[in-house]
Amino acid sequence: MSYASADRERARALSEVLAARGWTVWWDRTIPPGRVFDEVIQEEINAAKCVVVLWSPASVKSNWVKTEAAEAAARGILVPVLLQDAALPMEFKRIQAANLAGWDGEQDHPALATLFAAVGRLMAGPEARGIASNLPPPPPGRGRAFLLAGVLVGVAALIGAGTWWLRRSASMEPAPMAAASNAAPTVATAAGTPTPTTAAGPSAPAPPAGAAPASAPVAARRMNLLSPDNGGQIIAAARADWAHLIDGNEDQGVWVDGGEGVFAFKDERPARFDTFAVLVPDTSDVNLKSFELFAADSPTGPFTSIGKFDTQNLRLFKSPYQEFRFQPVTAKYLKLRSLASHRGDNGAVRAYEFQLFGDLQ
After folding, report:
1. How many Cβ atoms from other residues are within 10 Å of residue 344's Cβ?
2. Which residue from 302, 284, 266, 272 is spatially nearest to 352, judged by alpha carbons?
3. Which residues neighbour 71 within 8 Å (Cβ) at sequence distance 6 or greater?
4. By the 8 A CB rule, do 346 and 291 touch?
5. Would you say 361 and 271 are in contact if contact means Cβ atoms under 8 Å apart?
6. Is the pTM of this model over 0.85?
7. What is the 3-state secondary structure (H, E, C) of the chain?
8. Nearest C-alpha neighbor of 55 from the set 77, 38, 78
């Protein structure tokens, strides 16, 4: 079962209903110690006879869910379920989904019968796969052709994304290197406006001559390191609801005034990162304006300041996430300290979602 973290409780309820009918359901993404997250998911999808994808406003924005759905569709084992009204990704609109938008756990909901029938046909054998996914079964010998086509499309998408990133980076003013005098680096927001910050400190030393400027992306497997889907977690915070700042639910605000939180990455491994993003959904005097980021190799510190940053008090329509870039830092833990709202004090400060981009070491 593929779902967004915001839909975990409904996924749990549905997995219990499916398991009660005798099917084995892998849904909670429990990763054995020492295993790599995406490798385990790939193994589970390869072993599955059926992949149930839960569509919601949160999951349609999840790259993980869309990737898993595409993998299942390519194999003809996709059974989509609509948890809430949502604009489905274009490639999945033509696949009929079981509508559980009004389901509250009752066993006799009409859509459950449709879901059970679709899952049952797939579990009975490969001859039923085309029926369950509302697609005709591929003619003999075409499976490899579909797989090759998918690979080619993926490569083309990566090339296009790389070209876009290079053009975007070229259009932005590169951040200067931290000088020995502790001159403040420059951080570019999502709007492309450079914002001065405090000195990066010992956690972001000036790179050697000839190194890439700070605006160059951290190479390798860049991801949102704070996402629970990628193993991100919160270690300590002023209040329990700080956990909602990384859960993918963009509609839930959290009061962060006067507090700070410490975040860790997958298995509390070190990571190299250079971009922090803050969701600003609309204009409000209580929106988080000023904050400071710190890095450390222990959850209790000592922490070294990465810099202080200011958000813009408006929604950016290209992406509501405002990005703040700094010289690459390698650490195991990230701490955020709330400093002020847009009305100029720390008495009532609200934030929504945080993201941190880089790669695990």
Report:
1. 10
2. 284
3. 45, 51
4. no
5. yes
6. no
7. CECCHHHHHHHHHHHHHHHHCCCCCCCCCCCCCCCCHHHHHHHHHHHCCCEEEEECCCHHHCHHHHHHHHHHHHHCCEEEEECCCCCCCHHHCCCCCEECCCCCCCCCCHHHHHHHHHHHHHHHCHHHHHHHCCCCCCCCCCHHHHHHHHHHHHHHHHHHHHHHHHHHHHHCCCCCCCCCCCCCCEEECCCCCEEECCCCCCCCCCCCCCCCCCCCCCCCCCEECCCHHHCCEEEEECCHHHHHHHCCCCCCCEECCCCEEEEECHHHCCEEEEEEEEECCCCCCCEEEEEEEEEECCCCCCCEEEEEEECCCCCCCCCCEEEEEEEEEEECEEEEEEEEECCCCCCCCEECCEEEEEEEC
8. 78
Tokens of 31: 């990763």
Please check whether residue 78 is in contact with residue 72, taking contact to mean a CB–CB distance below 8 angstroms.
yes
pLDDT band at 36 (very low <50, low <70, confident <90, very high): low
46-56 residue pLDDT tens: 889 999 999 99
Strand bridging mode 254-255 / 51-55: unpaired
Between helix 37-47 and helix 63-75 the angle, nearest 10°, is 30
CA pair distance 349, 287, nearest whole angstrom: 6
CA distance 258 to 247: 21
Q: What is the C-alpha end-to-end distance of the chain, expressed in Å? A: 29
Identity of the amino acid at 109: H
**What is the Cβ-side half-sphere exposure of residue 53, based on CA atoms within 13 angstroms?**
31
Helix axes 143-171, 63-75, angle to 10 degrees: 160
Nearest-angstrom CA–CA distance, 21 and 222:
40
Phi, then psi, of 338 in degrees rounded to 5: -75, 130
Domains of the chain, first to last: 5-137 (3.40.50.10140), 176-360 (2.60.120.260)
d(C-alpha 346, C-alpha 259), whole Å: 9
Give me the mean pLDDT over the 228-254 stretch: 91
Encode pLDDT of 267-289 as tens digits: 999 999 999 999 999 999 999 99
The token pair at 37 is 């997250």
Mean pLDDT of the chain: 77
